[in-house]
Amino acid sequence: MIYRVICVCIIYIRMSSAFHTNEDRKLNFNGLGFKHGYNVEEHNVETEDGYILKLFHIQGDTRRPVLLVHGIIDSSDTFIIRGNGSLAISLANRGYDIWAINTRGNRYSKAHKYLNPNEESFWNFSFHEMGYYDLPATIDYVLERTNQKQLSAIGHSQGNTLFYVLGSTRPEYNDKVNLLIALAPICFLHNVKPPVSTLLELLPTVGNILQMLGMDEVFSDESVLNEAIKVICNKKEVGYELCARGVLFAIGGNDPSEFEPEFLPVVVSRYPTSTSRKNGVHVAQVALRKSFSQYDYGPIRNIAVYNTIVPPSYDLEKVKMRVGLFVGRNDRLSSIRDTELLRDQLPNVEYHLLEYKKLNHLDHVWGRNMYQYLFPYIFSVLKKYN
User: Which residues are known catalytic residues?
Assistant: First the structure.
């Protein structure tokens, strides 16, 4: 009954709403690439544990492959939705060979060799499995097709976390990554403040409730929740205040000059996208335990899984790949103090505290003037090591 009432309300709001007509809302990665002058190839990459990932490719100089890795509840679209002002198109215009991954569970990568997304077992993963399985399979795939021994990578938010997992648990892959440019890097979450800290404190409890309800997938594109988000955020009268100022800026940092109201419908047409409940809980554990460690199942199961009461920490000293940390001064998720902690533990690192004072967590991929505030630094570092 409640479900029907929600659906009726959504239909009513939708019928009475004046949606933006921006065509980019309806275009996927392929369509956006074609619109801006590029044919986009689709590749399927199978991981060691059977997940089938969608990998998009904009062909360029195969001697300069660059892998783009998105963050949590996001997809490869995040690197291209700004069109000519996006990172993917800007790199392609400079001749780089662009590969954009979609990690397990998001809208493009909800396939498995044996499992069905409707099964609980499909969603038994967190960022650990993405780093341990998704990245190695994708890196090997790209290197094989470009006939190179190394690639460069650009990650955003949790997309960088995966490389710290990879480098520490499968250290042989350090030699396959020439350079990681880490935009708004997430590793430690010791110094986050409200409302982010409050949200992280609530996540384990929310995770337990979702588990009892049998909800292992969160933010599914087909869910009533995601539908409601799109309806509310697209309402001209209140959408920007509620969704941009009330949620995105509160969590990521305030910067309305880089995220105009007309851009919001483009974002919410594809963000958030699905991930696992377990992934969100794992992020919260990192914050609450103040330790960048593997998933905490509780003492009894930890002994069975890890042969220790507490989950093992990821050894950042093993992350030998070259890492460039790109840090915003106005980032509420990836704080300066936490990125300094990360800097001090990585053995091969450059630290870039960017000059634009309002640069927040989301500006790195969605800001409309990043060609001015961010991209020149990225191109400079890429050129330095390629």
Answer: 157, 361
